[in-house]
Automatic annotation (TrEMBL), chain A:
It comes from Anaerobacterium chartisolvens. Residues 3-120 form the Response regulatory domain. The keyword Electron transport does not apply. It is found in: Cytoplasm. The modification 4-aspartylphosphate is found at D55. Keywords: Cytoplasm, DNA-binding, Phosphoprotein, Transcription, Transcription regulation, Two-component regulatory system. GO terms for cellular component: cytoplasm. The lineage of its organism: Bacteria, Bacillati, Bacillota, Clostridia, Eubacteriales. The keyword Transcription regulation applies. This is Stage 0 sporulation protein A homolog. SUPFAM superfamilies: CheY-like, Homeodomain-like. GO terms for molecular function: DNA-binding transcription factor activity; sequence-specific DNA binding. Its main location: cytoplasm.
Automatic annotation (TrEMBL), chain B:
It comes from Anaerobacterium chartisolvens. The lineage of its organism: Bacteria, Bacillati, Bacillota, Clostridia, Eubacteriales. It comes from the Bacteria. This is Two-component system sensor histidine kinase YesM. The chain crosses the membrane at residues 24-49, 302-328. GO terms for cellular component: membrane.
Amino acid sequence: MYRVMIIDDEKAIRSLLRITIDWEELGMKVVGEASSGIEAINTIEELNPDIVFVDIRMPFMDGIEFSKLAIKRYPQLKIIVLTAFNEFEYARQCIGIGICEYLLKPIVRKEIKKVLQKIKEQLDAEERQECDEEIPVSGLSSIDKIKDYLHYNYSDSNLNLTKVALKFGFNASYLSRAFKNETGKSFVNYLTECRMEKAVQLARKGKLMCEAAEEVGIPDPNYFSKCFKKNTGKNYSELRKKN
Amino acid sequence: MVPKISLSFKQWFSSLKLKQKIRYLFLFILSIYLVFYLVMYCFLFSGYMTDYALKNNRNSLMAIGSNLTAELDNISDMSKLIMANNEVTHYLKSSSSLGLRYSQNTVTAIFDIMSAYDNIYSIFVFKSDGTYVHTGRGITLVDKEIMDGPEWRKEIYEKAGGYVIRLNGGGAFTMKRGPFSMEPGEPILSFIRQINDLNTQETLGMLVINIPVSILEGTYKDADKTERKFCYYDINNNILSQGEVPDKLKNMNVSDSPFDQKVIKNLFSEEILSYYHIPDISMVIAGYERIGYEQIISKETAWMLIFILVITGFALVLISAFISVYITTPIQRLVQSMGSVKSGMFKRVSLSLPDDEIGHLKDSYNDMLLEINHLINELIDKEKSIQKAELEVLQEQIKPHFLYNTLDTIGYLALENSAENVYDALETLGDFYRKFLSRGDREISIEKEIEIVKDYLKLQKLRYEDVFEDAYEVQEDLLEVKIPKLILQPLVENSLYHGVRLKGEKGIIKISVYLKDDIIHIVVYDNGVGMSKKQIEDIMTSDNNKSFGFKGTIERIRYYYNCEDVYEIRSIEKEYTEVDIKIPFARGEKKDVQGNDY
């Protein structure tokens, strides 16, 4: 089963994609969705998809920016752009950064299936090279350093696994597993927790949500709000009102 | 009648070409010049000439008078010789019984004296008793009856020895034409005086010397011409001169004043009538003179006049030619060149004209054309810009992405929701597009514009649920006011995408329309992320896509109302943005709208 991720700022589109395509028949499974580029780049680590549907026009981080980052991190990732804009400039940029397909809305199931089948064949042909490297013992102390690093640098919205791995001299996927082994949490979840701890403080100080979101390194307040609720069980505004 | 003529003259004159006008003007000036010159000449020069002629005339009269005096002095001398003659004295003193011998001697003596003088016709010497002796060159008849009349003698006595001159001796003497003719001959002047004794002063007799009248004519013969006539009057206003005398001279009134001149002015000539009482002689010399202008105007002055006229005419022709060459012809050429404007061709005039006022006129004209072309181009550009901006907005909006996205949304509704919701969404979509495209009108009522926005937001709510609420606060009486189409929707779209959605919390988009100080305010408020000062400053200058809808909309409003100040953005970062579109409210549209102070 290939893992599929859907990124679109419209919930309806995401849902439509989920329910109109018979994923199982294609040997695929929708493992998650994101409503913005920011959210996607933060959760892609965890979801670990093979195929990504992405819209272009989204707030904070558009589809093209996201694709650039994602392909840099996961060169074998298959990205399908799904947009209502039939613009040459977009198409040109997409080809430039190695996006597989450029599909236009409204959604036509036949087309999507055709494209997915083609991609599936490609994926089948590619040997997935899983690097099963040993976890070096010396890495253990590094995890603490990384944790410290995250506590200091969580406000950097560009902070991500690949970047940190590069900084500390690790392979990204190795670090991912090592981090989880060591801390019991994924890198992304740990970083988000750090950020949310800080966010709670900000909420108590009475900061506006969008200000708090920017300050903790999640410039997309929608995603911030989602994370906040998930981590604290409360809405940001609720917590802010209490003070 | 006169105003009518002057009016039609005015019309006629103003209808003439400039060249013709100048020609007529010059003709007029020339005539005025000529008339003025003649009048000047007549009044000044002819006056002077008349004075001269009068003086001349007087001198002539006096010269003639002295001629006559000299002539009569001769006769007087002769009469003294006769009176002093012994024979004559003897004859006068002798008794009447004395015989013929005395008288014979006396006649001889008189004849001797007479032969020394010219022009004497006959001499009579009367004694007191009426007898007489006489001698002469011809026969003179004597009428003694007239001579005996007291009236006839009275004057002679009174003169007491002085002489009296009478035509034909007052009728007593008549020249006989020939020995056998009974007809009277030439008239004679009788020179009559009393002879007194030198010692006793006793009256002895009377002397009569007859002279032919032609002696008078001899005195003015040299001065007499066709234009100049003279004649003699005696003291009783009888004409003495024989021969041709003009009527005017004949009928002249001679008064007692010693000298008088009278000027009669005619159209082309002057006549001078004058007379002069010759001193010591009871006779008047009268003169008549006619002076024609041809005499007044001398040959030289005539030539000078002609010369001046020719010079003047030449000068006028020269000026006329100058005006023609340097003014009217260039203007005509300019007018011809400018004529192309009539046919809609705004071409510059490229004539080589002198660098004077006309050249400047051409330059100014060209500058004007340049400016006109510039303005036309500007207008065209402006019109193009408006159309472009409108088209761009339409393209931006109609560009099917909104439709496509909405279709997908509705597709989802169909799969997951009730059919009624799907129908509602489709209805809204149809309604939106119908109004949005609105038959290509450029203007739209505020009411319709708001309906478009309502539909738009309703569809957007389907796509981004829970992101925002919309609210409307519209002054009812402004609903019918027309505004440029699609100025509200792009602003609302901005509020949604660049305001509310970026905030992560449920926002509000509020549209208010109200009238304040004759300006319609269309305000789009959202409590989204707000804008920084720099963003507000940059929004009209930057080229990025985000500001595009706004920029195009503002530019359209500016063109449409020809007014720069059409918007205001109020914002606090992270809190709200308020875009205030200010549209001038035309009073004519007001109808029942009432000013509302917000």
